[in-house]
Each structure stands twice: as structure tokens, then as C-alpha cells.
Amino acid sequence: MKQMVYDIPGVESVTLAVGAELSLLNLYPAKYKKSEAIPLVDHDSVIQRSDRNSFHIKLGKSFSLPLYHFLFNEQLYMGRSLSSFISVGADKVDPHYLIELEYFGFPTERKSLLKNVHMLFPGDEVMIKAEELIWLDETLPEQPGLHATLVKPQAKGGVVYNLLPKVAADLFSPFDHVFFVEISQQLQANKDSVLEISKDSLPKNFGLNKERADVFNGAHKSNVVEGVDLKEYTDQINDLIKSSWEASGSKESVGCYLAEQFYYPFILFQLNTLAAGTGKEIRIVESANQENSVAPVFSLDDAPIVNVYESFQRVFFYGNKWLSRVWFFIPPMISAKIIKRQQRYSGGEQHICIYALTLDYLLRFYPLKVGNVIGD
User: pLDDT digits over 100-116, tens only?
Assistant: First the structure.
């Protein structure tokens, strides 16, 4: 039984009797539900009212739809679109999420871009104390500026450049690799309901290492950002990962464990987010029938308007002030040094440039709070 809450647009209050349960699929619109012919559809993912003050959420291992939750004032908010949580006050960017994404390539503890809003992955099972369950619809209108053509594309690089804002809005997260743009293109072009992605095609640079850290250390204005000591925090997360590996008793290397337990689940969540909006499904396979081109599409010789290197420098002058002056400090001379480090580290993936551009789009087009400054 559903009861409308009229004081918050796009919000529904789901009332469940103690012991009753509700299929999660019932909360998604038709375009998010996969065809009955697809065997991986999971109809056993449910929310149960355990008692008067708690909800039990259980996701099947094959549940492939985006899902987030946010607890505030004993109310449990859930929704399929991260941006919808802004309407109920979850509008502050989580600096820990950004740091982990930068230095590791993935977040821990199911963090998201919005502080205290957490992702739920396939196979997750959580018990949350709350008096009411509120489902959030997609309440923010589409941002027209994020879908406009920035420049007439003359080559593949121009097409990818134009799609960076849209993919950032779809993921509602900065990202560091053109891989996600290419997958978005394939989802639009593929007429089949399932898109197979080779595991070998996933971005491979992840985990804390000196080369990656040097790139972002060079970009950050200070060793302490938003009150967080970068080295202390990244060491803490790295120790957490290693402790988890040791406690698991896994015979795999720590790198393989990190990939399977942290990195791949996060990447799959992002891919599922892109796929769900198109009513399709993505499956990661050992080898795919079609080749996925993941070669770099940008170079230093690109035309200025579509050159991600120059765009990285333009963010300093024209982008979000908090990003370019507080979080990062990237005037041209510093940017040039960072780009050289990036090229040595990633073999041309240019992830810090793409990362800064996509984060800048989100901070400028959505009412997000960063530190004590509202994104401007």
C-alpha cells in the first residue's frame, strides 16, 4: 500500500505492516524493469518491515538496478537516482568519496558523491533502523546544458568530448576514463537488451600506488583538504583494505582481492546505472563477441575546444571556483606538470583531466554544497 506525501514533490511513503515485505522491482518504472526473457532478472530482492522501527533490505546477487539509501530523522529514503536525494537535504558532496575515487579508483563502504547517501550492490543485505520508508522519484529536471553539443565534432575525440557532461549526469559522479562514454555510446547503438562487456576491457589503473598519488598530490592545493589529511586518510583506507584481505583468508594476492571485492563491484554498479536508464542490462564476461575499443581518443594535438588537456587548464579560469581554487589548485604551469605525470602513469588515459572536467560539470549544473561554498 502506498501513501502519497504531498509536501515533498516526487516522494512516496511506503507503508508496510510488521512482517510484510515488498519486492524492490515494484518501485521501479517500466523502463527500468528487464524483460521476462532475461534470466538474470531478480524478483527476490525485497524490503521487509522487520518491526516497528526497522527495515530489512535484501538484494539478490543478480539484481542489476541502481539503488541508494539515506537515513535522516528516523526516515529511510531510498531511490534509483542519486540526484533525487538532493530534494530531501542530501546535497553536500562527500570529500571522502572524492579522495577515495581519486587515489584508489573506487569508494569503500558504499559511499556515493552525496554525503551519507550509500549505494546498495547486488548481494547486499542490510538492517536499518527507521520509522518510515520513503521512495524518491527522479525529482530534478534534466539539465539542458549537460546535453547540449559543445562543438561540432570532427573526429571521435569531439564526439567523446561532447558526451562527457551527459555521462557525468547519468552516473552523478565524476569519472576518470573515456571507457564509460564508450559504453554509453554502445548502449544507445545496441538494439539488443543485453550488452556484453569483456572483463579485460575494464579500466585497469586502480589501487593506491605512488604514481597515481603523485598525480593527485600535484593537483591538490594542500595536503589537508576539507579538514582531511590526504596521506593519513589514504593510508587508513589502504590499511582497511589489507586488513579485510587478511581477515578473509583469501589465497589471492591483495591486488586480486581488491579488484574482486571493491573495484569490480563499483564499476559494475556504474555500468548498471548507465544501462538501467536505457532499459537494458550489462553483463561482464570473460570475453565478448564484439571488441570494445578502449584506446585513448584524446591527444595533445587535438583542436583546442575538444582538447581535454587544455580544458583541464580552462577549469582554473572558468570552472567551479571551489574545485579549482580550494580542492585543486591548477593554474597553467601546475597543470602542465600534472599532465606530464599523468601521461607517464596511465599511458595516455588522461584520467585526472577527465575527472576534473566531469566533477566541474556536476558542481556547476546542480545545487551541490562543497565545504562552506555552494557550487557556483
Answer: 999 999 999 999 999 99
User: Does 260 lie in the same domain as 158?
Assistant: yes
Residue whose entry in the numeric block shows the C-alpha cell 586480486: 256
Residues 113 and 149 in one domain: no
Looking at 136, 165, 197, which one is the last position of a domain? 136
Convert the pLDDT of each residue in 215-229 to its tens digit: 999 999 999 999 999
> DSSP characters for 61-112?
TT--S--EEEEETTEEEEES-GGGGGGGT--BB-HHHHHHHHHTSS-STTB-
Q: Of 136, 165, 189, which residue constitutes the final position of a domain?
A: 136
Q: What value, to the nearest 5°, has the Cα angle with vertex 130 and ends 76 and 3?
A: 60
**pLDDT given for residue 295 in this prediction:** 60
* pLDDT tens digits along 137-164: 876 656 656 665 666 666 677 888 989 9
Residue 206's Cβ-count burial label (10 Å; 0-12, 13-18, 19+) is buried
In this structure, the answer to whether residues 125 and 166 fall within a common structural domain is no
The answer to whether residue 188 sits within a structural domain is: yes
Do 156 and 86 share a structural domain? Answer: no
Question: CA geometry: angle at 174 spanning 171 and 368, to 5°?
Answer: 85
Are both 119 and 166 inside the same structural domain?
no
Q: Is the pTM of this model over 0.70?
A: yes
Contact 134, 78 (CB under 8 A): yes
Torsion of CA 133, 62, 104, 199, to 10 degrees: -160
Give me the domain span that covers residue 304.
Answer: 144-367
* Domain co-membership, 156 together with 120: no
Q: Are residues 101 and 162 in the same domain?
A: no
Q: What integer pLDDT is reported at residue 54 of this predicted model?
A: 93
Predicted local confidence at residue 102, as pLDDT = 97
Output the pLDDT for position 144: 58
**332, 217, 108, 266 alpha-carbon torsion, rounded to 10°:** 40
Rounded CA separation 108/307 (Å): 32
3-state secondary structure of 267: helix
Asked if residue 153 and residue 103 are part of one domain, the reply reads no
